[in-house]
């Protein structure tokens, strides 16, 4: 996009504030942010974790979080899913280690991962493989996570902001 998506304004709030509020509403046992220490979310009283493997995308951040998390399961929420709700995430937590599937496509950035998957993520990164989808498929194969097929209503929660057009087409701040 050419700028930090965390600062995108949706309904008068930057995305990072919306996502942090959504996560806090799930009442997690531990809350961590994977990102830059000087990001807009600094100063929120939440530990900011820098990726052990820099420039490795979401898998790099997840690998680091899985390694340091205190809890056996880690809930992940990407910054660019503005329609996600705490209620849906709480339902996901009840299911356990699961990765949503929408229209036969994995949605690995609003998912619940086992800490036991850390070595798999680290191995993939060491081989230069950064794909979250490949990581998810390996977890399915090893029985560490299960696919969760989304209903039509739940699919709408996974609107993703990747391009300026996505923001314009779905923005509520015009």
Question: How would you describe the overall organization of this protein?
Answer:
The protein has helices at 15-25, 57-68, 86-95, 118-126, 132-142, 152-155, 164-170, and strands spanning 9-10, 13-14, 33-34, 48-49, 73-77, 98-102, 105-106, 110-114, 146-149. By secondary structure, the protein is an alpha/beta fold. It has one domain (5-170): Spore Coat Polysaccharide Biosynthesis Protein SpsA, Chain A (Alpha-Beta Complex), CATH 3.90.550.10. The strands form four sheets. It has a three-stranded mixed beta sheet, covered by helices on one side. Strands 1-2 form a two-stranded antiparallel ribbon. The longest helix is centred in the middle third of the chain and has 12 residues, at 57-68. The protein starts with 8 loop residues before the first strand and ends with a helix.
Gross morphology is globular
Instruction: Tell me, rounded to a whole number, the average pLDDT.
Output: 90
Q: How many beta strands in the DSSP annotation?
A: 9
The CATH topology turns out to be: Spore Coat Polysaccharide Biosynthesis Protein SpsA, Chain A
Element layout with pairings:
Layout: E1 9-10, E2 13-14, H1 15-25, E3 33-34, E4 48-49, H2 57-68, E5 73-77, H3 86-95, E6 98-102, E7 105-106, E8 110-114, H4 118-126, H5 132-142, E9 146-149, H6 152-155, H7 164-170
Parallel strand pairs: 3-4, 6-9
Antiparallel strand pairs: 1-2, 5-8, 6-7
């Amino acid at each position: 996009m050419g700028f930090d998506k965390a600062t995108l304004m949706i309904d008068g709030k930057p995305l990072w504030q919306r996502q942090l509020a959504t996560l806090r509403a799930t009442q997690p046992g531990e809350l961590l942010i994977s990102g830059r220490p000087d990001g807009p979310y600094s100063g929120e009283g939440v530990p900011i974790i820098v990726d052990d493997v820099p420039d490795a995308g979401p898998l790099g951040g997840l690998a680091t979080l899985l390694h340091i998390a205190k809890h056996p399961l880690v809930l992940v929420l990407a910054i660019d899913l503005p329609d996600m709700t705490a209620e849906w995430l709480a339902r996901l937590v009840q299911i356990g280690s699961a990765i949503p599937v929408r229209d036969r496509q994995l949605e690995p950035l609003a998912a619940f991962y086992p800490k036991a998957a850390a070595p798999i993520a680290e191995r993939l990164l060491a081989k230069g493989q950064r794909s979250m989808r490949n990581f998810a498929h390996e977890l399915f194969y090893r029985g560490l996570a299960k696919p969760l097929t989304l209903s039509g209503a739940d699919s709408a929660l996974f609107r993703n902001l990747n391009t300026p057009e996505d923001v314009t087409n779905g923005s509520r701040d015009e």
